[in-house]
Amino acid sequence: MALPPALQPPRCNNPDCTLPEGGRCARLAEFPNPLADCPDLARTTTAPEPPRETASLSAPWSGRHLDSVEVERLLSRTPARLIAVLGPYNAGKTCLLTSFFLQLANGQRASFPYRFASSLTLHSFRELMERASQWTGESAEDIVQHTTVGADVLRPSSFLHVGLRPQDFRDERHIDLLLTDIPGEWVKDWTGRVDDVSGRRMAFIQRCDAFVVLADASALMGAAGGRTDNETSLLVRRIQEMTRDMRPRPPLALVLSKFDRVIHSVLPPAPEKRTERTGWGELSNRLRRTWLALEDARREQMPFSIFPVSAFPHRMAQGQPVGVMDPFTYAMEHADRRAHRKPLHTLPPEEARGFATLRRWRDEP
Ligand SMILES: Nc1nc2c(ncn2[C@@H]2O[C@H](COP(=O)(O)OP(=O)(O)OP(=O)(O)O)[C@@H](O)[C@H]2O)c(=O)[nH]1
Ligand SMILES: [Mg+2]
User: Fold this and answer.
1) Could you give the domains of the chain?
2) What is the pTM of this model?
3) Where are the beta strands (DSSP E) in 71-203?
4) Are strands 66-67 and 157-166 parallel, antiparallel or unpaired?
5) Which tens digit of pLDDT belongs to each residue from 289-331?
6) FRET label pair with 42: which of 3, 190, 194, 265, CA 20 to 30 Å apart?
7) CA of 48: how far to CAs of 3, 18, 51, 56, in Å?
8) Of 229, 309, 225, nearest in space to 261 by CA
9) What is the Cα–Cα distance from 9 to 21, expressed in whole angstroms?
10) Closest ligand 1 atom, CA of 140?
11) 323 ligand 1 Cβ < 6 A
């Protein structure tokens, strides 16, 4: 049953009347029951107005991938972090993003220093998750669809969004994180030759806080491994070139994706040994050109690290992802240090005593 329209407080058109403020009706002599009878008193309800012709305004966001104009708008309003997720066709980019979202939204943050708060692209994430949940576990089957982006070159819809709050439950600040979800073909075009279209599509690179680059570990170990190594090394070099003037230099997280397919023959080294060339067994040999590119990047003070990741080692009902949060933790730790963003330093709580209060003195002007 719908509620009847609410009564508004009375208003009186007689300037001498104080009845609406709790006083006397100016025409009390004429109308002993002014609330019922006085014609100067207006009592309106909040009955809904009939729909107007112009009432067909759509919602300000669709819940699907954001386009470059929406992203621009968001970036001008908030100190959003922007992470580019790049790699050749079929490298596992979209699976990684889907798995990252699943983990985060499910509260399985692992080392990631934020908790899930919101998403402007929930509809897209939901579609990806639904598709991934139908995967039977067959390796020949796609887990999600290969990424295609609308034909609009000027406004490509290629960004996913998550709103984050710091891990401390008392800290209610909200941080926007934008993640690119682009087709491998775009990455290839941009790596090979930057024409006008490709330059526009990839204009976000100049604003990126971090890069997550994927190389398919199973492809590297396969017969065409040399091609994957080559594509990855060219991509690392392109990023290195495009970020040469950025300070601080954005970090690069190299994700060796689909690691579940090679785990029987390659044991990942301990985290502190991951940037050493010798630590990866046969995979080190397979990544020959990529290592050279990474070593050049190191010489130019570009931070990098390497992560073995299995976004979907089994079908969803059967097993957990492995290492998915690590590259994002690495990327965010660097992104949060950037000076041109508002730093995320948590102030000590009001009741803090002793040593903790030193931080408050230091932070106070
Ligand atoms: N076993 C296994 N297979 C994976 C994993 N991640 C991705 N795959 C496989 O790789 C395929 C491609 O993954 P996508 O995430 O669509 O790759 P992409 O880089 O987004 O590809 P494009 O959008 O075409 O550029 C998936 O459909 C799966 O078959 C993983 O962690 N483990
Ligand atoms: Mg994709």
Assistant:
1) 66-336 (3.40.50.300)
2) 0.80
3) 81-86, 114-118, 157-166, 175-180
4) antiparallel
5) 999 999 999 999 999 999 999 999 999 989 899 999 999 999 9
6) 3
7) 12, 29, 8, 16
8) 309
9) 10
10) 29
11) no
